Amino acid sequence: MKSDKKQLVDEISALILSNLKGLNEKSAKKLVKTVDKASEEIAKKYAKLQKDEEEAKEKAEKKAAEKIKEQSKKVAKAKAKEAEKAAFDAKIALVTGSEVTEAPAKKSSSKKSSAPIVEEAPSSESAE
User: What string of H, E and C letters represents the secondary structure of 81-117?
Assistant: First the structure.
């Protein structure tokens, strides 16, 4: 990275100095030193800003990964809770008999069967 920084300093200095002409040698030496010093500061600032951007990007990626991990934990916890409830219902079914396992099935099937009953009623009226 130091060679990259040195190359950047040289390029900045060359660009600035190419536009500054018409000075005597004594003034030109002072100007070159000033421009080189300023170019080094610019290169340092540029490198720091690049580093900060990379760190911010990494931090954002870590945060996103953590959020995904947290969401997956919530999903796993919900699935575990459902499995625990299903196991509890199965234990109740063992104690009370097979009626408990059939009752939830009847509830869901009764909802489904209620719709056809409504459809059958109008058809029986149309038959009259």
Answer: HHHHHHHHHHHHHHHHCCHHHHHHHHHHHHHHHHHHH
Is the Cβ–Cβ distance between 1 and 39 less than 8 Å? no
- In this structure, are residues 36 and 9 in contact, taking their beta carbons and an 8 Å threshold? yes
Residue 118 to residue 123: CA distance in whole angstroms: 9
Q: Mention every residue, 6+ apart, whose C-beta is less than 8 A from residue 44.
A: 5
Q: Is 12 helix (H, G, I), strand (E, B) or coil?
A: helix
Count other C-beta atoms under 10 Å from residue 13's C-beta.
Answer: 19
Phi, psi of 112 (to 5 degrees): -70, -40
pTM of the model: 0.51
Q: With both helix axes pointing from N to C terminus, report the angle between 25-96 and 2-19 in degrees, rounded to the nearest 10.
A: 140
* pLDDT tens digits, 6-64: 899 999 999 988 888 888 899 999 999 999 999 999 999 999 999 999 999 999 999 99
Among candidate residues 78, 77, 98, 79, the one with its CA nearest the CA of residue 89: 98
| Number of neighbours of residue 43 by Cβ within 10 angstroms | 20
